[in-house]
Amino acid sequence: MSAFRYEAIDHAGKTARGVLEADSARAGRGVLRAQGFTPLMVEPAGIKQASRPGRSTLGRKLSQREQAVITRQLASLLIAGLPLDESLSVLSDQAERDYVRELMASVRGEVVGGHSLANALAQHPRDFPDIYRALVTAGEHTGKLGLVLSRLADYIEQSNALKQKIVLAFTYPGVVTCIAFGIVAFLLSYVVPQVANVFRSTKQELPFLTIAMLALSAFVRHWWWAALAAIGVAVYAIRTVLAQPGPRLSFDRWALKAPLAGRLVRGYNTVRFASTLGILTAAGVPILRALQAAGETLSNTAMSEKVDDAIVRVRSGTSLSRALGNTQTFPPVLVHLIRSGEATGDVTTMLDRASEGEARELERRTMMLTSLLEPLLILAMGGVVLVIVLAVMMPIIDLNNMVQ
């Protein structure tokens, strides 16, 4: 049986939507008629909503929180001994959002039809990325799907928490920057022109700073749209250039060496790499396949290139710690912990420790950077306002001296 999304009306004319299981769309319509509904639409749950006119496609994707919750619940049900199809049915019944309910029903339909869970998830690549499906495949092959999903849920939750902390840390500096630009724009577009009218009536010679400020004020008032257009074009051009492999690789190499930000980029990617590699090795995935999958999670192409070099070295017989150490890209702590794990035969535990340590270090560096940015932004804002005030006050002081 397969899962079908339906839309029907009852005898009172009310519209009902949901998911049902049937052998075919025709059989599904028969089920609805037997229940007293008039079917308007019955289609496989896997069909995207974008194919249906008049229906918004917003929100047609699992959020990170929903993905973590689904993974955690599925792991708990499987560890408790519930069969996979019944576990997916429970997730579908308990889903709060229609899309999640339809998604779980579609996955269950594929599983009931004889497909593996990984193959069923492959029908929804936007909701379940390659690394997610690779871990599910490893769990199915080793017979430890529940344990693998439990570790995967831990990984998703920790990754979401880390992203949230970083975003919250940079929220205050971002708000201060926006307010500063707003205040400066108000002063240049309204306050400075009002004062300029007074200066024109006196016909006195204005200081250079005031002349420059008046010219900047005129530009802001008359050409602000051109400035916004230029910024938009510049952003589009930069994104287009960075979409090319060569420029993107050069930029990522520079990002690793950039002051302050370089350590954040390196630390964030190291956490993702170590966490993913730890989950894969714990699931029994071969080291070469695990390295390849972990490298695909890196957002920095320069570090991903170094992982490819390490894979070549490991394939030729080099140990993992030496291969990663030769790249001179990953933190020495990660390399040392992996070497210790190789000596004790417990690489997975050492990878988990390395991931936790790098996550704490990344949080510390993020807080330190934001603590430096906040006073610097306030000082910069104060400096700009001071220049504007001086440009306004200097002619007034000169005029006062002339009157005396």
TrEMBL record:
Keywords: Cell inner membrane, Cell membrane, Membrane, Transmembrane, Transmembrane helix. The chain crosses the membrane at residues 166-192, 223-242, 372-397. Its main location: membrane. It is a multi-pass membrane protein. Residues 71-193, 273-395 form the Type II secretion system protein GspF domain. It is found in: Cell inner membrane. GO terms for cellular component: plasma membrane; type II protein secretion system complex. Pfam families: T2SSF. One of its GO terms (biological process) is protein secretion by the type II secretion system. InterPro entries: GspF/PilC, T2SS_GspF, T2SS_GspF_dom, T2SS_GspF_sf. Belongs to the GSP F family. PANTHER family: GENERAL SECRETION PATHWAY PROTEIN (PTHR30012), TYPE II SECRETION SYSTEM PROTEIN F-RELATED (PTHR30012:SF0). NCBIfam families: GspF (TIGR02120). This is Type II secretion system protein GspF. It comes from Trinickia dabaoshanensis. The gene is gspF.
